[in-house]
Amino acid sequence: MKVELVSYTKDGEKIVAIASKMSRSRKGWDYHEKTMTDEEIEVWIREAIIHGYWSPLEHSSYTFSIEGISRVASHQLVRHRIASYTQMSHRFAKPVDEYYQPVTPPSAEKRNEELVKKAYDDAYKYYYELLQNGVPEEDARYVLPNGVNTNIVVTMNARELYNFFALRLCSRAQWEIRQVAWKMLEEVKKVHPRLFKYAGANCIILNNLTSDRSMTIENVLNGIWGFEITRCPEGVYRDGIPKCILSSMGLAELWQCIHDCKVHFGDPGDDDSGCIAWCKKNYANGSRQGGA
User: Fold this and answer.
1) DSSP-assigned letter for residue 56
2) pLDDT in tens, 140-169
3) Single pTM value for the model
4) Cβ pair 63, 157 in contact under 8 A
5) Which residues are catalytic?
6) Which of 12, 138, 144, 161 could lock 91 by a disulfide, CB 3.0 to 4.6 Å apart?
7) What are the residue ranges spanned by the domains of the chain?
8) Rounded Cα gap, residues 135 and 267, in angstroms
């Protein structure tokens, strides 16, 4: 799988911040563009997000090239309708020879890999025979498996990305679309870290809309587990949310290590920062199921 941010609104953070401020100001665009400081950009982005004032985020757009995912994942992706999609057509771009690379689920890699491989090989054999027998590409593709690889170009604005991340970064999301979502978040954070600072699964969004204490994915990675909601929309109670988030990132061992630090340094006034830093050094760079 390859996920790459190929185009975006370069001044997106400032545009979102100005739009957010203009809704509460009598002054026009030129004034705010000339006078807005970097500190104000961060303030007005945060004001919009934590108050659920999402329309300013619609002014910044992002285009991704997503390659090598299955049709299972792409069918889930296109259900997010406030977006634009252009997908590889198996009618015109036949998945033959080296271009037939169906996706094998991790759950099948150990004990059922040969069975999955046989199913994929049989489907390809029948597909190719149909083509050789003169069946049109648009009809021969009916026998291709859901796991067949595809490429897709996706454009979403920042508001829709927040909605997408809220649903697809969650540990309850299907593994492949969750992996796509984590890679997309990593890409946009490279260019607009302030705008996507508060992005996360629904537990983070709900907490930030209803609590005076904002939470971020970075907070969770740093052992700052101050969620104030009773439970997330998926029914996970407050104390279980950090584990859920880190498991979604493929970092369950990091959760266990930070949890042990908190138990060991559990008395008021204890400083667990050194312990947590050791955990991050040893576990945060491991292989992520949901991330890179």
Assistant:
1) G
2) 999 999 999 999 999 999 999 999 999 999
3) 0.91
4) no
5) 168
6) 138
7) 1-90+149-176, 94-147, 201-292
8) 72
What gap in Å lies between CA 116 and CA 148, rounded to an integer? 12
> Could you tell me which residues are beta bridge partners of residue 62?
8, 156
CA–CA gap between residue 154 and residue 66 (Å, rounded) = 8
In a 10 Å sphere around its CB, with 0-12 CB exposed, 13-18 middle and 19+ buried, how is residue 280 labelled? Answer: middle
Distance CA 13, CA 21 (A): 12
Structure tokens at 180: 């796509």
Cβ atoms 143, 127 nearer than 8 A: yes
Check: CB of residue 9 under 8 Å from CB of residue 57. Answer: no
Question: Which CATH architecture fits 1-90+149-176?
Answer: 2-Layer Sandwich (3.30)
Q: Of 148, 179, 201, which Cα lies nearest the Cα of 77?
A: 179
With cut-offs at 50, 70 and 90, classify the pLDDT of residue 245. Answer: very high
Residue type, 151: N
Residues 253, 247: Cα–Cα separation, whole Å: 8
**Using only C-alpha atoms, what is the Rg of the chain?**
22
- State the Cα–Cα distance between residues 182 and 170, nearest whole angstrom: 10
DSSP string, 139-181: HHGGGS-TT-EEEEEEEEEHHHHHHHHHHHSSTTS-HHHHHHH
Give the H or E element holding residue 3: strand 2-8
| Alpha carbon of residue 183 to chain centroid | 6
